[in-house]
Amino acid sequence: MSRPNIIQWFKKCKGTKITKKKSVGLRGCPQKKGVCLKVFVCSPKKPNSARRKVVKVRLSNKIRLTAYIPGQIHRLQEHSQVLIRGGRIPDLPGVKYRLIRNKLDLGGLSGRKTARSKYGTKKPDKVC
User: Fold this and answer.
1) DSSP labels, 12-81
2) Which pLDDT belongs to residue 62?
3) Cα–Cα distance measured from residue 103 to residue 80, given in angstroms and rounded to the nearest whole number
4) What is the spatial distance between Cα 120 and Cα 98, in angstroms, rounded to a whole number?
5) Across residues 112-119, what is the average pLDDT?
6) Residue 22: inside a domain, yes or no?
7) Is 121 domain-assigned?
8) What is the CA 62 to chain-centroid distance, rounded?
9) Which domain holds residue 77?
10) Backbone phi and psi for residue 116, each to the nearest 5 degrees, phi listed first
């Protein structure tokens, strides 16, 4: 059996590419609990115009990061406990995490018909 030449050897050594994690602050967990440090609003990137609700959170592993509050109304204050998940907001630079509605201190939205699972809304009662 002959030895491979140098080009064949380098081709074999390449192997699979190592992919970079997108939500580094969660440390491989699907969700993490945290405490709100500051609740504020900020404006999105150029073509869009709005007031996006954002919160600074200190996680249980002492990491501080910014997360987006989905939905219209919230009652978060400075020391509220929240559950955080991955998922970036395209028009807010530096915001790579979202809060989970209807868990811990962040309540769900009421009166929502579509995409209820994203906003923690219960199924409405059937009226005959």
Assistant:
1) HHH-PPPPPPS-GGGTT-SEEEEEEEEEEEE--STT----EEEEEEEETTS-EEEEE--SS-----TT-E
2) 95
3) 11
4) 13
5) 92
6) no
7) no
8) 17
9) 27-108
10) -65, -35
pLDDT of residue 1 exceeding 70, the answer is no
DSSP structural state of residue 92: S
Distance between CA atoms of residues 22 and 89, nearest Å: 12
pLDDT at 60 over 90: yes
The average confidence (pLDDT) of the chain is 91
Q: Which amino acid is at 83?
A: L
CATH number, domain containing residue 101: 2.40.50.140
Domain for residue 127, yes or no? no
Q: Is residue 38 predicted with pLDDT exceeding 90? A: yes
Structure tokens that stand for 104 in this block: 């811990």
Q: What's this model's pTM, rounded to 2 decimal places?
A: 0.84
Q: Which amino acid is at 109?
A: L
Q: Tell me whether residue 78 is in a domain.
A: yes
For residues 20-30, give the mean pLDDT: 91
**Number of independent structural domains in the chain:** 1
